[in-house]
Known about the structure:
The protein has helices spanning 3-12, 29-34, 48-58, 109-121, 144-155, 205-212, 216-220, 253-261, 265-274, 339-345, 358-366, 371-396, and strands at 19-23, 39-45, 63-65, 82-85, 128-133, 158-166, 176-184, 194-195, 224-225, 281-291, 297-304, 323-328, 331-336. The protein is of the alpha/beta class.
Amino acid sequence: MPAFLRAFFLVCCNWAMPSFYEFFAGGGMVRAGLGEEWECLFANDIDAKKAASYTANWGAGRLKIADVGSLAAADLPGRADLAWASFPCQDLSLAGAYVGLQGRRSGAVWPFWRLMQALAAEGRAPSIVVLENVCGALTSHGGEDFAAIGAALADGGYRFGALVMDAVRFLPQSRPRLLIVGIRRGRAVPDRLVAAGPDPLWHPPRLAGAYEKLSRQSKAAWAWWKLPEPPPRTSTFSESIENHPRGVVWHSAAETRRLLSLMSPLHRRKVELAKTAGRPMFGAIYKRTRRDESGKSVQRAEIRFDGVSGCLRTPVGGSSRQSILVVEGSAVRSRLLSPREAARLMGLPDSYRLPENYNEAYHLAGDGVAVPVVRFLAARLLEPLLGYFCTSASIASNSLPASAQCPWEDSSR
């Protein structure tokens, strides 16, 4: 919505901007995705290095650096429309040995939830709660972790549902993530935002399977959130590559040969085929541990030339940093992905200030939320929900005709 029109609604119609709390905020990618039409009331992260990036880009005014478990309801100002928590994923993935929500890191979702309960006790429960994590949360401990989250939301007075959203629909990066969206019970929800059953576009079989393991009470509080199909992605991996990268150097010829030697015959054939393309080819490489023909664990370099990068990860717990291979005829060069390239693959603009240290910048990107995913979810679900509430309140006060929309509910997006 144009700024002048938004200002008209805010001032003349006495409407406030939608507001949010941002937990496990990292570098503020949720804030970037929500955009300027949203007001941040509070942000929190325990990591001082990530907090430095948050401050560099958004200022320190709303940020509190602390363990979420040390926070109290009194630390959170006002009443937010949205509380977003991208809680740590390590214990729900291989990096954390799949210990689940009992782990020290991913278990941080429970102190967050206690804060939400404390806000509810004060009559300040956020209208919407979003929990974001890796898809391993669906199957962790045989689905018991997902069921526990569902039970907490249902018991806490929220109608909830979940979606699996892959950043590859918006960016040239394969990055499927689970988003659990809860709406405060008692709030009117437009029929157009709820489907009769799972949509394979957003509710793949593993999500439908996790739903089946929910308790009867949780199923009664469930909603199959309905989102439209996004427009086809037009960007490719090569468009994210810097001509003059900062923070990385090209590998030596020996280092590139070593990388090629780690490839299986299948992936070596991909490189040989790329040499015949008649144009520069950009491949994304990850090193992985695989079993060879004898069953022995060996390190492999695996490459893809499909215009998409692999999922960015934090370079801890055995996860490797992503490399790129540039093939131009018989010439083959390789290097690590640069910090700016990683940020672009997360949807951050080049104006976003990154840490100078390579590991810190890569960790910041690999541990974040893809910005266009947040924007799409906000535009197609969160904002329509809040707009519906706002419109209902306005109609009740006879301040606007029934056909009016809230300023942030833009149906053209």
